Amino acid sequence: MNYSNIIFEKEGNLAIVKINRPKALNALNSDTLKELDNVIDAIAQDDEVYVVVLTGEGKAFVAGADISEMKDLNPMDGRNFGMLGNKVFRKLENLGKPVIAAVNGFALGGGCELSMACDIRIASNKAKFGQPEAGLGITPGFGGTQRLARLVGEGMAKQLIYTGDIITSEEALRIGLVNKVVEPEVLLDEAKGMANKIAKNAPIAVKLCKAAINKGMQMDIDSALMYEAEVFGLCFSTEDQKEGMTAFVEKREKEFKNR
Ligand code: CAA
């Protein structure tokens, strides 16, 4: 499929997805959200892709949902727009492959929310994070009220959302919103380096780790540990488990096959 607002490339076992509306600082309009939805489906079905890196073209990661598109929405259209964003971001969050956000610049509103739907966030030291929606007369609408509170805790999420403060990547690191901060020139290489490191592990095991963490975080501890035992057991049905443990015992390099 051809994309107008997204660049999709493959490098070995990595998929690199770039939001590509630099003139609007990669603001997410409906068309871009639908393209993102399509690209996630394509990646889900592509057995060659083990890990995804998501970034933005130009000086922004994503400066939010598209304000020009939202300005004149009626309540039902607003609800539908919010539901579209939530559907796409949830699909990304539940994708059976890890997604690393390489946050190259502004990650505001829907952009901060998009980064939070990824598994891991690596930020350039030029990146800026925030949920400025209340200053526009709206609430965060693509999961910000939920994922920010889960990531950084209720108190800090409330502070950021109520004030609309824009914070630096260093502050985002301090509060646990991002995993790592690097120089802009090395951002993509850092993200790809981490992605390749993950891609060297058994893809099915990594996928099940993601499912166990994501699902377990929504469960009580006993149910979550039971779920962990189930996915742990499932690993023993894979060729890669046999290969990983045999290679260890035979003191040789392992060769995973995603089977
Ligand atoms: N929607 C639509 N267009 C946007 C945009 C957005 N979220 N953010 C930036 N743009 C556009 C600007 O309108 C401008 O377009 P023109 O050149 O046609 O005028 C272009 O991108 C460049 O932007 P600026 O000239 O403003 O660039 P700057 O460097 O001076 O400022 C900025 C950068 C501080 C990020 C500023 O653009 C800004 O404040 N943007 C809006 C940020 C925001 O409020 N995001 C939250 C949106 S609401 C949301 O996301 C809801 C939700 O949860 C789902």
TrEMBL record:
MF annotations from Gene Ontology: enoyl-CoA hydratase activity
InterPro entries per record: ClpP/crotonase-like_dom_sf, Enoyl-CoA_hyd/isom_CS, Enoyl-CoA_hydra/iso, Enoyl-CoA_hydra_C
Pfam families found in the cross-reference section: ECH_1 (PF00378)
SUPFAM superfamilies, sorted: ClpP/crotonase
Alphabetically ordered keywords of this record: Lyase
EC number, as in UniProt: 4.2.1.17
Family: Belongs to the enoyl-CoA hydratase/isomerase family.
Entry protein name: Enoyl-CoA hydratase
Species of origin: Clostridium punense
